[in-house]
Design a protein that fits this description.
The chain is of the alpha+beta class. Helices cover about 35% and strands about 20% of the residues.
Length: about 675
């Protein structure tokens, strides 16, 4: 295998944590020599091939950064050396870079082992360093190797981190390659040892006049005591410090606030002494006059609500008084007030009112209702984008879908992910169904919007209203919420609110294509409120038995319907370079039988080989070249060609081992062979 083909195989087989894959913060890099420097530099480029420049996280930078898969494919296509993740302000992740910390025997310093043993970590490109990912923000700080056992650096909002996919064995065995841990005391202790106790600088807008002048809330001592009573003094140190800062801000630094903080903290197991607490309290004075945001009691109120799931008592009292005042304004009436007589926001209807008995309307009867929000989710590679297109195409044409009546309507696809491939998918659909593309009345938007931003919602509403759209497909949800935290009720709640505004002002149904979580049994990825907000939910899945589309939630209908399907490869001719072009269309078949977990491949090695076979195409009707699968699997098996002292060395038996494993998988029925190709049983030629 040539060096270039080996590099391509290595990049294509790379695994990164699922939480990071869809964040649009990925780029590509290559090693470039610099005049006067013996060691080359890793130079970052955007996936379109332009060298990265300008401020980190600028509008231009965010527009050009992309997802992991898009960056990986670009690196392979353009012959670059690898991919990297660019931490952006607000991304919620910190990357630790330990330089020259791996001994010749592969051992690590004890303090690094304690950190990387509980989160995703991998070897650096040189093999002498370690990169680890954590949830949280530690700022951007650097400690040189000189004078220290190893170099140490943190990235939270700047630079970029190369990914090698060379994961530490402990990560796979103990936590799994997808696990990213929270920042803990071991990490904070190392940061304090290397960088000192100063808090990381928080980036602020220099034009914001209110920074450093945040108003106080005017809370009484009793109100602050009530808030503290809802909080655990043994919370993490960062939050504990924020409570102290908020009390300091609210009481202008006098001893009233300090005594409240000290009394509350003394109930915690980590409490040392009043004198120790006083040092932290006095350090807050140094923040005055600095160009930083002040932590206010508004943060503590949010902590208390999150902890106790209730509002402070005084807030409830204020609301009760407000309600009582409004009730006093109501006219005194006899009998039942009808909806026509009621001028309030929430009229009450009688049980027999016709407005309560309107029939449900459908785009696809029994499958896609004319509702506000529908979620279609599935794992990467399951075929969810093809299914969404197939449904939207049926609606756009008004043709029956799997025996279900379809009401013809204007459909629009927002191809936020893989916009370059939507044209091929449409061509394949038209080819398969004998449709002239010019007559195919399906709208497509290829510029990905950010549904967190009000300006994008306004522009999107204008476009959908102009097209008179009745249903629009967002493919995918991750790509229209760049930089947002999918597990955050605040971020996801705002995104869903904005999408509902779109449906209200346009009268159209929103069908969101979303990713499955790491545990498929727990449904779609991220905040659980997404499923709760959906009027209907459909799941797309794929396993060795085939692909399956099923309804998992239907507010007003049958939620037990399911359909099996294949992805049939369609030949589209050749591209501008004369290379063959293909895409896929959905071909429906009887729903596959669910296999017992015990019937699956045994052992991690067999499961890894099955995953590589799928990545090489075994799950398609075209199959995977056996040689490609073997090449990809060999990269999974570590091999040290250097012989031990006094030995005669050893031969590389990895290919033989992979071939034996493939033979066993075929004997067990997990794979099938046909000529020089491998197939999943559901895709094998008859």
């Amino acid at each position: 295998m040539t060096r270039q083909s080996a590099s391509v195989t290595k990049i294509m087989s790379m695994e990164v944590p699922e939480d990071l894959r869809e964040i649009p913060a990925w780029l590509i890099w290559r090693l470039e020599s610099q005049e006067g420097e013996a060691k080359g530099r890793k130079v970052p480029y955007w996936a379109d091939g332009m060298r990265r420049y300008g401020p980190n996280g600028s509008g231009n930078d965010r527009e050009r950064l992309t997802t992991f898969v898009a960056a990986r494919d670009a690196a392979v296509r353009m012959g670059y050396d690898g991919v990297g993740f660019a931490p952006l302000p607000g991304c919620g992740y910190t990357f630790l870079d330990f330089d020259n910390c791996v001994d010749v025997d592969g051992s690590l310093p004890r303090e690094i082992e304690q950190i990387v043993g509980r989160t995703y970590a991998e070897y650096s490109p040189s093999g002498k360093g370690i990169r680890a990912a954590l949830k949280g923000d530690l700022g951007n700080r650097k400690s040189p190797t000189a004078g220290n056992e190893y170099g140490f650096e943190t990235f939270s909002t700047s630079g970029f981190v190369t990914f090698t996919g060379h994961i530490l064995a402990a990560c796979k065995l103990i936590r799994g390659a997808d696990h990213i841990a929270e920042i803990d005391d071991n990490v904070r202790s190392l940061c304090e040892k290397r960088f000192g106790s100063a808090q990381p600088q928080v980036e602020v807008d220099p034009k914001d006049f209110m920074i450093g002048r945040e108003p106080r809330l005017g809370l009484s001592v009793e109100q602050m005591e009530e808030l503290l009573s809802a909080l655990d003094p043994d919370m993490g140190r960062d939050d504990w410090i924020r409570v102290g800062m908020a009390l300091h801000h609210e009481t202008t630094g006098d001893d009233t606030g300090f005594e409240l903080w000290d009394e509350w903290s003394s109930d915690g197991a980590k409490y040392t002494s009043t004198e120790g607490l006083r040092k932290d309290w006095d350090s807050f004075d140094r923040r005055k006059g600095q160009r930083r945001r002040q932590v206010t009691m508004a943060s503590v109120i949010k902590m208390a609500k999150d902890a106790g799931n209730r509002a402070p008592k005084w807030e409830a009292d204020n609301l009760r008084h407000l309600v009582e005042e409004e009730l006093e304004k109501l006219p005194r009436v006899d009998g039942v007030r009808t909806p026509e007589d009621f001028s309030g926001k929430f009229p009450i209807y009688s049980a027999g009112d016709p407005i309560l008995h309107q029939p449900c309307e459908w785009h696809i009867k029994g499958v896609i209702p004319k509702a506000d929000l529908i979620v279609l989710y599935g794992a990467s590679g399951s075929g969810k984008s093809f299914v969404a297109l197939d449904m939207a195409a049926a609606i756009a044409q008004g043709v029956s879908w799997q025996g279900h009546r379809v009401n013809k309507a204007n459909a629009v696809i927002i191809a936020a992910e893989g916009a370059g491939g939507v044209g091929k998918r449409i061509r394949a659909y038209c080819n398969r169904h004998g449709i002239n593309e010019a007559d195919f009345d399906l709208g497509v938007i290829i510029q990905p919007p950010d549904v967190i931003k009000d300006v994008d919602i306004t522009e999107l509403a204008k476009a959908l209203k102009e097209h008179a759209a009745d249903i629009f497909v967002i493919d995918t949800f991750a790509q229209v919420t760049p930089g947002a935290n999918e597990n955050s009720s605040e971020d996801m709640g705002r995104a869903l609110r904005n999408i509902r505004i779109l449906t209200q002002v346009t009268g159209a149904t929103a069908l969101i294509v979303h990713h499955a979580g790491k545990d498929a049994a727990r449904g779609a990825r991220g905040w659980s409120g997404i499923r709760a907000a959906a009027d209907a939910e459909l799941e797309v899945s794929a396993n060795d038995s085939g692909r399956l589309l099923k309804i998992t939630k239907m507010k007003d209908g049958d939620d037990n319907l399911a359909w099996g399907f294949h992805l049939n490869v369609i030949d589209l001719g050749v591209d501008f370079d004369g290379d063959p072009e293909t895409s896929c269309v959905v071909e429906y078949v009887p729903a596959p039988q669910k296999k017992n977990k015990a019937d699956g491949p045994k052992g991690a090695r067999q499961r890894d080989i099955m995953n590589r076979a799928r990545q090489c195409g075994a799950g398609t009707s075209e199959g995977a070249l056996t040689q490609d699968v073997i090449d990809a699997c060999v990269e999974l098996i570590p091999f040290e060609p250097q012989p031990a002292e006094g030995s005669k060395g050893r031969r590389d038996q990895r290919r033989t081992s992979v071939k034996r494993a493939l033979d066993r998988l075929c004997e067990q029925g997990h794979l099938k062979t046909h000529h020089d190709r491998l197939y999943l049983p559901s895709e094998a030629p008859s």
